[in-house]
Amino acid sequence: MVLVFKKFLKFFSSLRFTIWIISLLGLVCLLGLWIPQKHLVKDWYFQWKIHAPKMVAVLDALQLTDIYTSVIALTLWTLFFLNLGLVLWQRVPLIKNRIALSKAKISDPASAGGYPFRQSIELPPGVSAEVPLGLLRSKGYALIEEGGLFYGVKNRLSPIAFGLFHLSFFLILIGGVVSVYTEFYGYLDLAEGESFQGELERYSAIPAPPSFPKIGSLPKVAFTVAKIEPLVSGFTETGLKVTLVDAQRREHHLDINRPYVADSTTFVLKNLGMAPLFVLKDKAGKELDGAIVRLDCLKEKRDHFAMGGLEFKVKFYPDYLLENGKAATRSLEFNNPVFLLTVFQGKTKLGEGVINRGGHWDFGDFRLELGELNYWVRFNVVKELGVPILYAGFALASIAIVWRLLLYRREVIGAFRTNDDGSCLLEVAAKSEYYKSLADEEFTKLFADISAQMRRSA
Amino acid sequence: MAYWEIVFFWITLTIYALATGGYVYSIVFKNPRVLPWLTWLVCLGLLAHTTAIAVRFSATGHLPWSGDYESSMMGGWFIVGGTLMVGLRNKGMRGFAAVTTPLVLIMMGYGYMQNPGLSPMAASLKTVWLYIHVYFAWLAFGAYSLAMAAGVLYLLKRRDSEREEANPVYERFPSIPILDELIFRYVIFGFITDTIMIAAGAIWAKDLWGSYWSWDPVETWSLVSWLTYGIAIHLRITFGWREKRLAWVVIAALSTVLISFFGINFVVNSSLHAFKVR
After folding, report:
1. Backbone phi, psi, residue A18, to 5°
2. What is the mean pLDDT of residues B97-124?
3. Cβ pair B123:A395 closer than 8 A
4. What are the sequence ranges of the domains in chain A?
5. N or C: at which end does chain B have fewer Cβ atoms within 10 angstroms?
6. Mean pLDDT of the B95-124 span
């Protein structure tokens, strides 16, 4: 039993297993791109479900239509981190051994193997062995000596970066898990002048509370949307300036890429819409109904609203013009905002017409007036507590990978030998991690520099 | 496109096409004498390429960062610039242009057929993270392309060395062991910049979309690409894969990067990434 366990452990901690797991994770990612995912490309998924219900049912059962959170993916990620942990655990003694500056590493370059670069340098008369050693130290080598032999290493601690790089994956994992279990995610639609006091019912779809409500909590944030100013050039949105005023009367200026952050909660600007004040009157001018309605009608989207028992279908033109008798827009700039409305009473169409800011539209026995024309914005509200851990993981990964792969180790062993004529010879052998020819160039230059400096000091 | 941008774009494309033809000629007809001239031709092409970018910059007020056309324009500049830069230090590496120039030619031709129109900087791109994220993305793409170029030259030179009569053109390229090491060096450089690109992208995504990772197709392909090169590094360091096997791995691996940059739009139109400004 113990033997079987040891065999399993050996297999799970092998790099061969790492390659397999990474390859399988890559395959899962590829499958996720190939098979329409129900949470990512909903429209495609539902179309596919209509046209191939049996196949989609099979894929649903295998969780392949939600592959990134499927049992297969979670198992692979578990195995990946198990493997990573075991590899790290095994490597700790090796790393400790590699970074140790022990005398056991001193060996004679004449007999030591594994050092591809070799050179002999004659010490000029009057130059002691301390001079080349001092020069090596000045080039960043840590040295130990014993009996005319020495061992030097540059970037001695570099193997630690291996551990740190792989450790950063665990930080990213912890950050991700903490985020998932403390996550609060919702959409909040607010028009200019509207206030928010943190009420759950104000969210457009009531969001689920955090999975661990004791750790995660609802955002405790209060503010008023003071101003919304979309910036558009031609057909490109170039900015969305939103001013919020918080409970302490402080102003906060938001934009795309500049969310409002409070109580560990990020309010990201997600969407812009029109918030017109419509007033419905009868023929005599008596007000029947009126309200600011939030319409999601930009970028040619159609929306609708109900007022006074009538149903209005809306199309919006920010820069209205008539093109060959048809309504169109010159650009997405709000130069001449006009609503094209189709009104129904029950299933009966009462009429179709356009209305602009400050204008009115008469249909049947009614008159619709458009007073103010404001905007509303949709905030994507996200509260998750794992983000700092996650960012620490990203930072650690970036630093560690630069440290390990660019500040790699160079090792030098050397021996001082005295010739029959009394002159002294420095015999060196050197090696580097990863890049042999680059290191050859570097060692050639290093020892040429050392020779030149010794000659100068002589 | 601005008028002078069109002019310099076509000059660039013509020069790169001539250089590509020249490299094919020199290899097929075993004529190494034209190689230095071809290097100068590519330099001239880069000059025209830089001018086209500068003209577009002056017309739009921002560097070309988004859309297939701008991606191919800027990406091509990084690849050709990187090729010439490594060639400055080592003459032998100038031969990389034999592989990277046709790659850039195809990329730019494809980009031109997409969306070359001038547009102001979209709101979603106005952040300092754009420069960090995209700059490191292009560095990674450039490095991976050079790794692929070194891989192709390695395979060509290796095959040629097994023949009785060697092609003198290949003698101008770095030696086989150096090419083998260069493949690995460029993969390492690309992997480091790729890591920084993904980390910077995740931080940017949190501010822009509210989520640092959304399993967006471009994100997923970037991860696939990062994992692929991670495997390549492990294969080299741990399993000692080098020479032919590593060369084939890096040639195949570049496809994942090309798909990340240009291939996603072929398949889906739901990417959150601003390769197409919405």
Report:
1. -55, -45
2. 85
3. no
4. 2-97, 100-156+409-457, 178-272+379-395, 274-374
5. C
6. 85
Task: Report the C-alpha gap between B91 and B171 in whole angstroms.
Answer: 11
Measured between alpha carbons, how far is B160 from B166 in angstroms, rounded to an integer? 6
A46 in contact with B at a CB cutoff of 8 Å?
no
To the nearest whole angstrom, how far is the Cα of B103 from the nearest Cα of chain A?
24
Domain containing residue B88: 3-267
Q: How many helices (H) and strands (E) does chain A have?
A: 9, 21
d(Cα A122, Cα A425) in Å, to the nearest integer? Answer: 4
Please judge whether A397 and B195 are an interchain contact, meaning their C-beta atoms are less than 8 angstroms apart.
Answer: yes
Partner-chain contact A40 B216, CB within 8 Å: yes
Residues of B in contact with A401 (CB under 8 A): 191-192, 195
Helix (H, G, I), strand (E, B) or coil at B93: helix
pLDDT digits (tens, 9 = 90+) for B128-183: 888 899 889 989 988 999 999 999 999 998 988 888 787 888 888 888 888 999 99
Do the chains contact at B211 and A382, CB–CB below 8 Å? yes
Residue B218 located in a structural domain: yes
* A394 CB within 8 Å of a chain B CB: yes
Non-local (6+) Cβ contacts of A200 within 8 A are A206, A207, A218
Check: CB of residue A163 under 8 Å from CB of residue A93: no
Q: What is the CATH number of domain A100-156+409-457?
A: 3.30.530.50
How many Å from the N-terminal Cα to the C-terminal Cα in chain A? 69
Q: Residue A349 in contact with residue A342, Cβ under 8 Å?
A: yes
pTM given for the model: 0.81
Mean pLDDT throughout B1-25?
91
Supply φ then ψ for residue A272, to 5 degrees: -120, 145
- Tell the residue number behind the tokens 């301390």, with chain if given: A130
CA-to-CA distance for B42 and B19, rounded, in angstroms? 6
Given B181, B192, B196, which is nearest A437 (Cβ)?
Answer: B181
Interface with chain A: mutation pick from B179, B186, B195, highest number of A CBs within 10 Å: B195
Cα gap A258→B126, rounded to integer Å: 10
Q: Give the whole-angstrom CA distance, residue A224 versus residue A383.
A: 19
Cβ neighbours of residue A102 closer than 8 Å, sequence gap 6 or more? A144
Q: ipTM score here?
A: 0.78
Distance from C-alpha of B246 to C-alpha of B151, rounded to nearest angstrom: 8
Question: Among all residues of chain A, which has the CA nearest to that of B269?
Answer: A41
For B234, which of A18, A406, A438 is closest by C-beta distance? A18
A103, A99, A97, A98: which is closest to A145 by C-alpha?
A103
Distance from CA of B22 to the nearest CA of A (A): 30
Q: Which two tokens stand for residue A417?
A: 């030998």
Q: Are B112 and B9 in contact (CB under 8 A)?
A: yes
Separation of alpha carbons A184 and A174, rounded Å: 17
Q: CB–CB of A320/A329 below 8 Å?
A: yes
The residue assigned the tokens 């990340």 is B260
Instruction: Provide the b/e sequence for A365-382 (b: ≥16 CB within 10 Å).
Output: ebbbbbeebbbbbbbbbb
The ranges of chain A with pLDDT < 50 are none
Say yes or no for a CB contact (<8 Å) between A32 and B223: no
User: Taking CB atoms and an 8 Å limit, are B126 and A438 in contact across chains?
Assistant: no
Does residue B275 fall inside a structural domain? no
Judged by a CB distance cut-off of 8 A, whether residue A270 touches chain B is yes
Which amino acid appears at position A408 of this protein? Y
The verdict on A91 touching B (C-beta cutoff 8 Å) is no
Average pLDDT, chain B: 86
Number of domains chain B is built from:
1
